[in-house]
Amino acid sequence: MKYLGLTLDSRWNFEAHFKRLAPKLLGTAGALSRLLPNLGGPSATCRRLYMGVVRSMALYGAPVWYDALSSGTIRQLSRVQRVLAVRAIRGYRSISTDAALLLAGTPPWDLDAKVLAAVYEWRGDLRSQDLRPAPREIQAERDRLDDLALEVWQCRLASGTAGRRTVMAIRPVLKEWSEEKWQAVLTFCEAVVSQKEAAEREREASADAPTIRRRLTGRRRRQFNLLMPLLDGPRTTDSGESAGR
To answer: Which superkingdom heads the taxonomic lineage of this protein's source (predicted)?
Structure first.
C-alpha cells in the first residue's frame, strides 16, 4: 500500500519502498549527470544543489523507515549517492565511493537518515511533555547529531580499504572540510582532468595513433564501446567493483 509517498508492506521492512524508489533515484541521477560534465558545465554550487534534490527524494520519510534499513537498502542509497558525488567532484567512474563522498563533502545518506530520525524522535519526546523547542534549540540538537554522525563516518573510513590515499589525506580534517578547502580541491581536479582530456584528444588526432585508440563517432563508436571490454578485460575500480570503459 502506498501512503503519503511511502510504500508500506505487511512486514514493515520497506523493501518494496526502496525497490520502487531506487530506479527513480537512478533515473534522476542519470538525467542530472548528463547536465554535469567533467569539463565546464554548472558551478560547484549548482552541482551541490542537484545533489540536494536527489538527496531529498532519497531521504523522504527517513524517520519512518530508518530503523528498517538493511545492508541491501543501504547499498542502494550508496549507489545513487556515488553517481552524484562523482559528478560533483568532476571525477571518473573508477573512483571509489569513499573517496567520492569525501571529496564532495557529503556524508553517507544512511547517516543523514539516522540524524533525521533522531531529531524527529527528540522533538516527539518533547512534544509528549508539552514542550516546544525554539528553532535555535532544534538547530543545536541537529548540529550535535551531525557531529556524532561525522564521528561514525570517520570510524567507517578507518576500516575501509578503497581510496586509501584520499581517505588518509581528508579523514584527519573531516570536521574542518570547509567550503574553501573543497573549492581548492575542486579547482585542482578540474585542472588535472582538463590536461588529461587535452592530451587524450591529441593522441586520438595523431596520424600515427593506433586505430583502436582513434576517436570514433556514431554507430562505429557504439560498436567500439561494446568491443572494448573484450579487448581490455574487466577493469576493477579502487572500490573493488568492476567498471565498464
So the answer is: Eukaryota
